[in-house]
Amino acid sequence: MGASHTRTEPNEFQDLMDKTGFSVEQIKNLRKRFLQLSGNEETISRENLDSIPALANNPLKKEIINAIFDKRNQHESEVGSFQEIGFEQFLMVMSHFRPPTLKTTPEEKEALRKEKLRFLFNMHDTDNDGTITLDEYRKVVEDLLSKSGAIEPATAKGIADAAMLEVASTNVPHMAPDEFYEGITFEHFEQILKGLEMETRMHIRFLDVGTATMRCGRSTS
């Protein structure tokens, strides 16, 4: 399945709204950002996102970009990655960062939270096997720690291992050691992050194009 063609005709807005939960205004604003990123092309590649200033110093830049092209984040059962994505696929990925509104029901908030957690889980589960292994978790934590330049890789590795063991033993106490080392499932991941407020925190700042409807996260005004 390749990248889809851009769809922005008025009679197609309803379909995009139904699929993503975005309003017409949000879709139009995202379309502007898409064209900025793609250089007015019909598709976006990794190279288009690689030069975004807001991602330049993010230690998880590679993981974030890979997640945007991850087929699992299209709300489908496919696995693998796209080489390029069209506007509709771009919208589907961005829908994971849509914050709740005053009209959002508790059930809808829970669904939004689960979507965000699934996106984060997929970002860590780099081999698409449905579990986050110690090696995968360690790599993310090492990247976060060692890229600061203040911690040696070996020290970062030790901190990563201890952190995962502590988090898992505290939040998933019923897991046996051998089960834990095989990897954390999505259900375990949900338990580990059970107390973390995700609905308004998880956002991508580089999407902002000077309009309040575009901001996925807390307002800084």
UniProtKB/TrEMBL annotation:
Residues 112-147 form the EF-hand domain. It is a lipid-anchor. It is found in: Cell projection, Lamellipodium; Cell projection, Ruffle membrane; Cytoplasm; Membrane. SMART domains: EFh. It comes from the Eukaryota. GO terms for biological process: cell differentiation. GO terms for cellular component: cytoplasm; lamellipodium; nucleus; ruffle membrane. Keywords: Calcium, Cell membrane, Cell projection, Cytoplasm, Differentiation, Lipoprotein, Membrane, Metal-binding, Myristate, Nucleus, Protein kinase inhibitor. Transmembrane segments: none annotated. Its main location: other. InterPro entries: CHP3 (IPR052490), EF-hand-dom_pair (IPR011992), EF_Hand_1_Ca_BS (IPR018247), EF_hand_dom (IPR002048). The keyword Lipoprotein applies. It holds the Pfam family EF-hand_6. GO terms for molecular function: calcium ion binding; protein kinase inhibitor activity. Belongs to the calcineurin regulatory subunit family. CHP subfamily. This is Calcineurin B homologous protein 3.
